[in-house]
Amino acid sequence: MSETCNRRQKCEKTRYLEREKCIFHCDKLNFDANDIQQFWHQLRDEYNISGVYGINQDKVFEGISFPKFQNAHRYPFNFFSNNNRLERIFTFKKCVFFDDVDFTNVQINRNIIFEECVFYGDLKTNTANEIEIKNCEFKKEITALRCKNLNISNSKFINNVLFIVGKEVKLIQAVFRKKFEIRGSSILESRYVKLSLINQFLLII
Ligand SMILES: [Zn+2]
Fold first, then answer.
1. Strands across the sheet containing 156-157
2. Residue ranges of the alpha helices (H) in 47-77?
3. In the beta sheet, which residues pair with residue 96?
4. Burial 80-94 (b: 16+ CB within 10 A, else e)
5. Chain segment 87-107, per-residue pLDDT in tens
6. Ligand 1 centroid vs 121 CA: distance in angstroms?
7. With 63 labelled, which of 16, 42, 82, 137 sits at a CA distance of 20 to 30 A?
8. What pLDDT does residue 1 have?
Protein backbone atom coordinates (compact mmCIF):
# COMPACT_ATOMS: atom_id res chain seq x y z
CA MET A 1 0.00 0.00 0.00
CA SER A 2 1.24 3.40 -0.96
CA GLU A 3 2.14 5.75 1.83
CA THR A 4 1.51 8.89 -0.15
CA CYS A 5 -1.66 10.96 -0.18
CA ASN A 6 -4.30 9.37 -2.41
CA ARG A 7 -6.12 12.43 -3.67
CA ARG A 8 -6.95 12.45 -7.37
CA GLN A 9 -4.58 15.24 -8.32
CA LYS A 10 -1.13 13.93 -7.62
CA CYS A 11 0.23 14.72 -4.18
CA GLU A 12 3.59 13.43 -2.99
CA LYS A 13 3.04 14.09 0.69
CA THR A 14 2.83 11.26 3.16
CA ARG A 15 -0.50 10.30 4.62
CA TYR A 16 -1.46 11.86 7.92
CA LEU A 17 -1.67 9.20 10.63
CA GLU A 18 -4.33 6.58 9.66
CA ARG A 19 -5.88 8.79 7.05
CA GLU A 20 -5.67 8.18 3.34
CA LYS A 21 -4.65 11.71 2.53
CA CYS A 22 -1.95 14.06 3.73
CA ILE A 23 -2.53 16.66 6.43
CA PHE A 24 -3.47 19.33 3.86
CA HIS A 25 -5.95 17.23 1.90
CA CYS A 26 -7.64 14.92 4.41
CA ASP A 27 -11.03 15.96 5.75
CA LYS A 28 -11.00 17.68 9.10
CA LEU A 29 -14.11 16.16 10.67
CA ASN A 30 -12.38 14.49 13.59
CA PHE A 31 -9.48 16.83 14.03
CA ASP A 32 -8.58 17.43 17.67
CA ALA A 33 -6.57 20.32 19.12
CA ASN A 34 -3.32 18.52 18.49
CA ASP A 35 -4.16 17.78 14.86
CA ILE A 36 -5.14 21.40 14.37
CA GLN A 37 -1.85 22.58 15.77
CA GLN A 38 0.02 20.16 13.51
CA PHE A 39 -1.87 21.42 10.48
CA TRP A 40 -1.08 25.08 11.08
CA HIS A 41 2.50 24.32 11.93
CA GLN A 42 2.98 22.50 8.62
CA LEU A 43 1.06 25.08 6.63
CA ARG A 44 3.19 27.90 7.99
CA ASP A 45 6.27 25.91 7.10
CA GLU A 46 5.17 24.91 3.62
CA TYR A 47 3.95 28.36 2.62
CA ASN A 48 6.73 30.22 4.33
CA ILE A 49 4.44 32.33 6.45
CA SER A 50 6.24 32.19 9.75
CA GLY A 51 8.77 34.96 9.18
CA VAL A 52 9.18 37.47 11.98
CA TYR A 53 8.89 40.35 9.53
CA GLY A 54 5.61 39.20 8.11
CA ILE A 55 4.75 38.03 4.65
CA ASN A 56 6.20 39.86 1.69
CA GLN A 57 4.56 37.95 -1.16
CA ASP A 58 1.04 37.27 -2.32
CA LYS A 59 -0.05 33.75 -1.40
CA VAL A 60 -2.31 31.24 -3.11
CA PHE A 61 -3.69 28.29 -1.15
CA GLU A 62 -5.19 25.77 -3.50
CA GLY A 63 -7.14 22.58 -2.83
CA ILE A 64 -6.57 22.61 0.92
CA SER A 65 -9.01 21.38 3.55
CA PHE A 66 -8.80 23.72 6.51
CA PRO A 67 -9.60 22.87 10.13
CA LYS A 68 -10.53 25.47 12.73
CA PHE A 69 -8.43 28.62 12.57
CA GLN A 70 -6.01 29.21 15.40
CA ASN A 71 -6.69 32.15 17.58
CA ALA A 72 -3.96 34.70 18.21
CA HIS A 73 -4.87 34.98 21.88
CA ARG A 74 -4.17 31.35 22.47
CA TYR A 75 -1.06 30.93 20.40
CA PRO A 76 2.13 32.92 20.45
CA PHE A 77 2.04 33.52 16.72
CA ASN A 78 -0.88 34.16 14.55
CA PHE A 79 -1.55 31.45 12.00
CA PHE A 80 -0.78 33.60 8.98
CA SER A 81 1.53 36.29 10.19
CA ASN A 82 3.47 37.17 13.27
CA ASN A 83 2.51 40.82 13.28
CA ASN A 84 -1.22 40.20 12.71
CA ARG A 85 -1.25 42.33 9.59
CA LEU A 86 -1.71 41.11 6.07
CA GLU A 87 -0.16 43.44 3.53
CA ARG A 88 -0.38 40.99 0.63
CA ILE A 89 -3.16 39.42 -1.38
CA PHE A 90 -4.25 36.03 -0.11
CA THR A 91 -6.18 33.75 -2.45
CA PHE A 92 -7.96 30.59 -1.35
CA LYS A 93 -8.86 28.48 -4.36
CA LYS A 94 -10.89 25.25 -4.28
CA CYS A 95 -10.48 25.05 -0.50
CA VAL A 96 -12.89 23.54 1.99
CA PHE A 97 -13.29 25.14 5.40
CA PHE A 98 -14.58 22.64 7.94
CA ASP A 99 -14.92 25.18 10.73
CA ASP A 100 -15.00 28.95 11.14
CA VAL A 101 -12.64 31.01 9.04
CA ASP A 102 -11.59 33.50 11.67
CA PHE A 103 -9.54 36.53 10.72
CA THR A 104 -10.81 38.67 13.59
CA ASN A 105 -7.32 39.16 15.01
CA VAL A 106 -5.79 40.05 11.68
CA GLN A 107 -5.74 43.44 10.05
CA ILE A 108 -6.23 42.77 6.36
CA ASN A 109 -4.77 45.73 4.51
CA ARG A 110 -5.14 44.25 1.04
CA ASN A 111 -7.54 41.73 -0.46
CA ILE A 112 -8.62 38.26 0.44
CA ILE A 113 -10.05 36.26 -2.41
CA PHE A 114 -12.09 33.07 -2.03
CA GLU A 115 -12.65 31.17 -5.25
CA GLU A 116 -14.62 27.91 -5.61
CA CYS A 117 -14.52 27.31 -1.85
CA VAL A 118 -17.02 25.59 0.41
CA PHE A 119 -17.61 26.90 3.93
CA TYR A 120 -19.06 24.72 6.68
CA GLY A 121 -18.52 27.43 9.29
CA ASP A 122 -18.71 31.18 9.65
CA LEU A 123 -16.45 33.68 7.88
CA LYS A 124 -15.31 36.38 10.31
CA THR A 125 -13.17 39.43 9.77
CA ASN A 126 -12.76 42.61 11.76
CA THR A 127 -11.08 44.83 9.24
CA ALA A 128 -10.38 44.15 5.61
CA ASN A 129 -9.84 46.38 2.66
CA GLU A 130 -11.57 44.11 0.21
CA ILE A 131 -13.06 40.63 0.23
CA GLU A 132 -13.88 38.88 -2.99
CA ILE A 133 -16.06 35.79 -3.05
CA LYS A 134 -16.40 33.97 -6.37
CA ASN A 135 -18.21 30.69 -7.03
CA CYS A 136 -18.40 29.77 -3.36
CA GLU A 137 -20.97 28.04 -1.23
CA PHE A 138 -21.75 28.90 2.40
CA LYS A 139 -23.58 26.22 4.37
CA LYS A 140 -23.82 28.09 7.66
CA GLU A 141 -24.62 31.54 8.95
CA ILE A 142 -22.31 34.47 8.37
CA THR A 143 -22.54 36.54 11.53
CA ALA A 144 -20.08 39.40 11.07
CA LEU A 145 -18.06 39.79 7.96
CA ARG A 146 -16.53 43.26 8.11
CA CYS A 147 -14.74 44.95 5.28
CA LYS A 148 -14.56 48.11 3.23
CA ASN A 149 -15.50 46.60 -0.12
CA LEU A 150 -17.26 43.31 -0.65
CA ASN A 151 -17.45 41.72 -4.04
CA ILE A 152 -19.61 38.61 -4.45
CA SER A 153 -20.25 36.72 -7.65
CA ASN A 154 -21.95 33.41 -8.49
CA SER A 155 -22.11 32.30 -4.89
CA LYS A 156 -24.72 30.66 -2.76
CA PHE A 157 -25.63 31.44 0.86
CA ILE A 158 -27.77 28.76 2.46
CA ASN A 159 -28.25 30.47 5.82
CA ASN A 160 -28.57 33.97 7.30
CA VAL A 161 -25.99 36.51 6.28
CA LEU A 162 -24.79 39.77 7.86
CA PHE A 163 -22.25 41.94 6.07
CA ILE A 164 -20.81 45.04 7.76
CA VAL A 165 -19.43 47.16 5.00
CA GLY A 166 -17.66 50.53 4.87
CA LYS A 167 -17.97 51.46 1.25
CA GLU A 168 -19.47 49.17 -1.37
CA VAL A 169 -21.16 45.80 -1.79
CA LYS A 170 -21.23 44.41 -5.30
CA LEU A 171 -23.46 41.42 -6.00
CA ILE A 172 -23.34 39.49 -9.24
CA GLN A 173 -25.65 36.48 -9.42
CA ALA A 174 -25.55 35.64 -5.74
CA VAL A 175 -28.22 33.46 -4.17
CA PHE A 176 -29.40 34.12 -0.62
CA ARG A 177 -31.68 31.43 0.76
CA LYS A 178 -32.41 33.12 4.08
CA LYS A 179 -32.04 36.52 5.71
CA PHE A 180 -29.64 38.85 4.00
CA GLU A 181 -28.55 42.01 5.81
CA ILE A 182 -26.05 44.73 5.04
CA ARG A 183 -25.01 47.28 7.66
CA GLY A 184 -22.59 50.18 7.46
CA SER A 185 -19.55 49.95 9.66
CA SER A 186 -20.66 53.15 11.44
CA ILE A 187 -23.93 55.05 11.66
CA LEU A 188 -22.55 57.74 9.40
CA GLU A 189 -21.29 55.25 6.85
CA SER A 190 -24.55 53.33 6.83
CA ARG A 191 -26.11 56.09 4.77
CA TYR A 192 -23.45 55.89 2.12
CA VAL A 193 -22.80 52.20 1.56
CA LYS A 194 -23.20 51.63 -2.14
CA LEU A 195 -25.01 48.53 -3.30
CA SER A 196 -24.27 47.50 -6.89
CA LEU A 197 -26.41 44.80 -8.43
CA ILE A 198 -25.40 43.15 -11.67
CA ASN A 199 -27.60 40.36 -13.06
CA GLN A 200 -28.89 40.06 -9.54
CA PHE A 201 -32.41 39.00 -8.61
CA LEU A 202 -33.67 40.00 -5.21
CA LEU A 203 -36.65 38.16 -3.87
CA ILE A 204 -38.25 40.37 -1.25
CA ILE A 205 -40.69 38.66 1.07
ZN1 LIG B 1 -2.11 15.48 -0.24
1. 65-66, 96-97, 118-119, 137-138, 156-157, 175-176
2. none
3. 65, 118
4. bbbeebbebbbbbbe
5. 889 999 999 999 999 888 888
6. 22
7. 82
8. 56
Q: Are 11 and 25 in contact (CB under 8 A)?
A: yes
| Interval between CA 181 and ligand 1 midpoint (Å) | 38
Residue 74 has pLDDT above 90, yes or no: no
Please tell me the distance from the alpha carbon of residue 141 to that of residue 158, in angstroms, as a whole number. 8
* CB contact at 8 A, 16 and 31: no
145 CA → ligand 1 middle, Å: 30
pTM for this structure?
0.90
For residues 88 and 56, is the Cβ–Cβ distance under 8 A? yes
Cα–Cα distance between 36 and 182 in angstroms, integer? 33
For residue 156, the CA-to-ligand 1 centroid distance in Å is: 27
Which of 145, 198, 193 has its CA nearest to residue 174? 198
CA of 115 to the centre of ligand 1 (A): 20
pLDDT digits (tens, 9 = 90+) for 39-68: 988 988 888 776 555 677 888 999 999 999
Cα(25)–Cα(34) distance, integer angstroms: 17
Report d(CA 76, CA 157) in Å as an integer: 34
